[in-house]
Design brief:
InterPro entries: Tape_meas_N. By secondary structure, this protein is mainly α. Among the domains are: 70 residues; 57 residues, no CATH class. The protein contains nine helices and no strands.
């Protein structure tokens, strides 16, 4: 149930409550109680109340079904969405790869883009969605979170700083291992 949105969880609770109210035994108990009443007027009023409750519950079930459908539609990519992504985002990523300063990384990124491009076909997306894959949650949510951390600077800077410190230590060890390079370093930065 971790994958469910709060809206879907709430709809599930409402559906369970409605189903519990409308079990055959619950309706039978209401009719039995109604029959115990001696007055025909009371019996008619009780039957009208039962019918009214059933109609209200039917309307609630229709509303819940429509809400489920809206949630499902909101999570699925349409063929138009898929076309827009392939026609707009993929070329943008390819331009980004072409503009990278490091040509090897750019070529690697472009190769990865070409590898994943067939996954964005309408047929593949439809099959994956039928199997239960939620592109918006699986790709969109992590991408949104990653961009958020980049924008507000709340990313894992500790790990980046630690990696940079390790690179600096490694460079210092390489410098110390080369007597000529170490002598040049001492000339540039004499001990104070």
């Amino acid at each position: 149930m971790d994958d469910l949105t709060p809206q879907l969880a709430e709809l599930g609770i409402q559906l369970a409550a409605s189903a519990a109210r409308n079990t055959a035994s619950a309706i039978t108990d209401k009719i039995g109680a109604m029959r115990a009443s001696k007055s025909a007027t009371d019996q008619v009023a009780a039957l009208e109340q039962i019918v009214s409750d059933l109609i209200a519950d039917k309307n609630e079930l229709t509303r819940i079904a429509q809400a489920y459908q809206q949630e499902l539609v909101a999570q699925q990519l349409t063929p138009g969405d898929i076309r827009y992504i392939t026609d707009t985002v993929v070329p943008l990523l390819e331009q980004l790869a072409d503009g990278m300063g490091n040509k090897a990384e750019g070529a690697q990124l472009k190769q990865q883009i070409q590898t994943f491009k067939p996954l964005l076909s309408g047929e593949t997306v439809n099959i994956l969605q039928l199997l239960g894959f939620n592109f918006r949650q699986g790709i969109g949510a992590p991408l949104t979170q990653r961009l958020k951390t980049l924008i507000d600077g709340s990313g894992d800077t500790g790990a980046a700083l630690q990696a940079e410190a390790l690179r600096t230590q490694r460079a210092a060890m390489e410098l110390a291992a080369d007597p000529t390079a170490y002598a040049r370093f001492r000339e540039m930065y004499p001990a104070g």
